[in-house]
């Protein structure tokens, strides 16, 4: 009787040990599943940030600010004897309006990215004038005083147009066009990363290069 009771106790102890082992195994399995579901390795996060960056730079250029403008200028001309003495009754003049749209932004093709923990650093060259496109519906001669002895020539108008292009860019840059382009570019890029990765990252910027070096790349589109 005593032997039978001891045998039952041993069996009960084995069952408890077996159940405890199964419980530990089950908890370990559940913990492992939850761990892998929620674990995002740093390397994977860095790859995700790089992927977003690569898709972003495929746009090549980022236009971050657009400005409409209108200039009205007057030009006069008179024939001169030996380029010294004005010849009477040979003067002409005309008023000219030049309207267009300036676009400024950054070159994404030269951008670089680096990540450290939860900080993304984007390196960019300074913003520049991407294009200066005339509005031909608004651009043209407003008033002219021609002269049969010194008619207005096409090259006179072309020269004034070039002067208007230069003046429009100089005034826009002096008014903070490139600073606005920089601020808008930073905001657009931050929003791109936030939309793709959420708020797990902060984005910082390093700016390099010279503003003036890129201004000459602006294109006039007729």
Itemize the secondary structure elements and their pairings.
Layout: H1 2-38, H2 42-57, E1 61-77, E2 80-81, E3 85-86, E4 92-107, E5 112-116, E6 119-125, E7 128-134, E8 140-145, H3 154-174, H4 177-197, E9 202-208, H5 211-215, E10 219-220
Parallel strand pairs: 6-9, 7-10
Antiparallel strand pairs: 1-4, 2-3, 4-7, 4-8, 5-6
Helix pairs in contact: 2-4
Strand coverage percent: 25-35%
Taking the alpha carbons of the first and last residues, their distance comes to 111 Å
Order of helices and strands: HHEEEEEEEEHHEHE
How would you sum up the major sheet? Answer: 5 strands, mixed
| Helix count, DSSP H or I runs of 4 or more residues | 5
Whole-angstrom Rg: 36 Å
Helix content: 40-55%
**Mean pLDDT level:** 75
The 3D shape can be described as: rod-shaped
DSSP strand tally: 10
Residue windows where pLDDT falls under 50 for at least 5 positions: 26-43, 211-219
Based on secondary structure, the structural category is alpha+beta
Short summary of the structure?
This protein is an alpha+beta fold. The chain has helices at residues 2-38, 42-57, 154-174, 177-197, 211-215; strands spanning 61-77, 80-81, 85-86, 92-107, 112-116, 119-125, 128-134, 140-145, 202-208, 219-220.
């Amino acid at each position: 009787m005593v032997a039978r009771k001891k045998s039952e106790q041993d069996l009960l102890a084995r069952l408890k040990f077996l159940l405890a082992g199964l419980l530990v195994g089950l908890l370990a399995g559940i913990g492992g599943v939850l761990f892998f579901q929620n674990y995002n390795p740093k390397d994977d996060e860095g790859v995700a940030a790089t992927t977003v960056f690569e898709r972003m730079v495929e746009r090549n250029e980022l236009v971050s600010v657009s400005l409409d403008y209108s200039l009205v200028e007057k030009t006069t001309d008179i024939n001169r004897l030996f380029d010294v003495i004005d010849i009477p009754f040979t003067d002409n003049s005309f008023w000219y309006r030049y309207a267009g749209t300036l676009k400024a932004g950054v070159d994404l093709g030269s951008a670089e990215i680096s990540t450290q923990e939860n900080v993304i650093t984007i390196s960019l060259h300074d913003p520049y004038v991407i294009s200066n496109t005339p509005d031909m519906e608004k651009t043209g001669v407003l008033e002219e005083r021609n002269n049969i002895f010194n008619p207005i020539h096409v090259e006179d108008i072309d020269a004034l147009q070039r002067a208007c292009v230069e003046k429009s860019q100089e005034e826009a840059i002096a008014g903070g066009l490139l600073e606005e382009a920089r601020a808008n570019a930073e905001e657009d890029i931050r929003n791109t990363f936030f939309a793709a990765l959420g708020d797990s990252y902060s984005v910082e910027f390093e700016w390099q290069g010279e503003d003036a070096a890129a201004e000459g790349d602006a294109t006039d589109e007729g």
